[in-house]
Amino acid sequence: MGMWLIYALLSAATAALVAVFGKIGLKDVDANSATAIRAVIMALFLLGVVVVQGKFTQLGEIFTQKKALSFIVLSGAAGALSWLFYFLALKGGKVSQVGPIDKLSVVLAVLLAFFFLGERISWINSAGVALIAIGAILVAWK
Question: Which candidate in 18, 51, 74, 87 could, as Cys together with 31 as Cys, close a disulfide (CB 3.0–4.6 Å)?
Fold first, then answer.
């Protein structure tokens, strides 16, 4: 088993905690304000990780690579919008419905990777992506 799979499984597990903890935390607060606090905590945590790894000086290198920086900025903006919409959805919806719909991002990511990055997907992988889409819709259905 490759490290990428372990990291992906850990990502899925911690993302599930985001939904549950977020839903509890949003009970009596504004979703956008909560998202802002979450973003600050994430930034501080991740800066700490970079410092502990001894890679803080490498942050400056990213600023010298204009293309990389541009796409990192776009990714950050997309991530921030995703969090805003996710917390707004959690505020008004059930985790058991919002979570699966949010995972349609998997389907969209595969499609975008196919069309814009030229990544190929096998028929079996296509079937899996289709099942993810169908499953998300069925789980979210009232």
Answer: 87
